[in-house]
Specification:
Strand order of the largest sheet: 1-7-6-5-4-2-3
Structural class: alpha/beta
Low-confidence stretches: none
Distance between the termini: 79 Å
Number of domains: 2
Order of helices and strands: HHHHHEHHEHEHEHEHEHEHHEEHEEH
Strand content: 5-15%
Mean pLDDT: 94
CATH topology of the largest domain: Aspartate Aminotransferase, domain 2
Shape: globular
Length: 509
Amino acid sequence: MSVPTTTTPASRVAPLEMSPEAFRAAGHALVDQIAEFLTSIPSRPVSPNESPAEVRAALGGGALPANGADPKQLLDEAAKLLTGHSLLNGHPRFYGYITSSAAPLGALGDLLAAAVNPNCGSFALAPMATEIERQTVRWISELIGYPTDGDGILVSGGNMANFVCFLAGRRARAPWNVRDEGLASPSAKRLRVYASTETHTWVQKACDLFGLGTSAMRWIPTDAELRMDADALARTMAEDRANGDVPLIVVGTAGTVSTGAIDPLPRIAELCREHGAWFHVDGAYGALAALLPEASADLKALSLADSVAVDPHKWLYTPLEAGCALVRSRDALTDAYSWHPPYYHFNEMDGEQPVNFYERGPQNSRGFRALKVWLGLRQVGRDGYRRLLADDLALSQLLYERVAAHPRLEAFTQGLSITTFRYVPDGLKPGTPAADEYLNALNTELLTRIQASGRAYPSNAVVRGAFLIRTCIVNFRTTRADIEALPGLVVELGDALDREMRPATLGRA
């Protein structure tokens, strides 16, 4: 390829550069805007309730401009767009999904990490960042009572943390060399993966992406509390072995997405030892509750797992993205991921082989996710996180009590910091096909209207065929007053909606 001849000035000034004065002016102005935004969050609507067309109109169209613009002006414009047209998961009345309010210190940590811009693929490229990540992984292990002499890595979130552990388990428990021979080895047998019907959909993605196929899944039913039925798991694993299949991985969940249920982890650990299967715990949401003194024996038994996925951007209140994969065996990740291409030249230093995170996961180039987690852990400490999580649990339990006491609300489940319930209008008794069908339709539309109101933002769960309103509190800004206000809002909007929707065949209140 020919390179055009140019005249290079003696002093190069790239259009991306900013002078120290310009950087300070733009940065100080942005920090002021962010501080005002954080202060104003409780008074704003939780959601702007705008259509894609409305958001596009606010953004503006047109082609990429030929010439650039002033950085301070661009940051001011971007701040107004984002703060005015975003769902505010930092709002005290955001209860949807399992996305926490993000710690302000984490935002500043992201700024610092981006400014230094270490590539956390290897120690040589990111010496301090590598050691901060190692310490962060160790501290997360300590928090949940997991062995600290194993290994781990920070990744983007729960899906990726579970994927990293899944591949480590496939490598460790497949009875042939999967890395060399793949799944088409002459000695290959059918590999089986076990999970309850309440398990997050990442497990289907993993079977699909990593060559097992979704037909490798063995879905285990749940008990009355929506926990994996361990007796059904035992029967299924025994049947598969008798048929010549290999029980490869069992996924237990510490905090299911819909209801916060915790699987019987001690019994699952026993069955995995009996059948030689890899025991993985999806603790993306609930694992951190193991640090509470009142945590159940089932939850504390996640320490028995071969691997655990944890999401700091859930219950450590870290800004997105931040997930963590932990493994018991120090060699499990490098056995699954390590390659040494000739274009990498990373030597021992003073007789020690540094940790290179590219050998412990699928990424080579990696951003510095650990800094915001590390800063939060140091700002709050173990006891501080215990108080924060205990507050979230208490608020969720309070909501369950308030819902159960209301004549037009029906409480369903309460697990960890998740409460589920539905609105049942006066004069309607659940239990007939017509009434149950109407209640599902009514609560589906009711959820839409609650979210559109901007006054609160729950999500939904479906439990035994019933469409429910679901609240998950992983929010250090939520107060008792916020919880006390929710039942009234639900009933207010539900009553109005019932007057619009109820068919004459079901009578009128």
